[in-house]
Task: structure prediction
Amino acid sequence: MPELPEAETIRRSLEKLVIGKTIEQVWYSGLPLRSKKINITPIKNETIVEVKRWGKNIFLVGEKQNLLVNLGMSGKLLWNKKEKHTHVILVFKDGYLSFTDPRRFGYLHITRPYIPKEPPDPLLTKNWDLYNLSSKMVIKNLLLSGKRVIGIGNIYANEALWLAKISPFKKSSLLTKQEADRLKKAIIRVLKEAIKDRGTTLKDFCDCFGVKGTHQNNLYVYNRQGNNCLDCGTKIEKRYLSRRSTFFCPACQL
Result:
């Protein structure tokens, strides 16, 4: 958390705020992000021409360089607001953009004007699939690994597997072509539904304007343990898989 839909929600916020504007000043707290200090001063004086996304990564695309932003687990980008755990501020003529991250698992990095194309993004890549997998991992862990498709975190892996009626504990290599196709369609659907709801806010996620997402009100299985399955009425169960909460219907997802 945040996952692809939350990153896309923020990207759309940024489009309204920074395109065509020049970064006049850069401030950094000096504290390590994702265990190391960063150097983003070269982005100063860069004019933002586009805001892109690949997976969970957001790119402020300049004329010469990009600023890659990954929100980690608790990161936020806020317009004209500085909080206790703000670590980076980009100052524009008409306001400032702050990067706030209490847990400091997020990071910022200067890159050339190039957006990576691999692994595939489920909403931006035309041809990708989950069939004929050789991995020994169970399918939920494979989705979270980012090795075959990126941007899917714990929330939407649970949601997509329920929608596709596939057990999260099934070995990836045992997926049939029909199951792989169903799962691909389910992933695309749950991500688009979450983007339409401007993301899922379980704790403190919000867009750059401070507006929270509403998709937490429309989840199929995530955080619904003990409630009835929306399809068959069986109680949703919760187990831990590789220390991550896993929600599923024991009757529907075989």
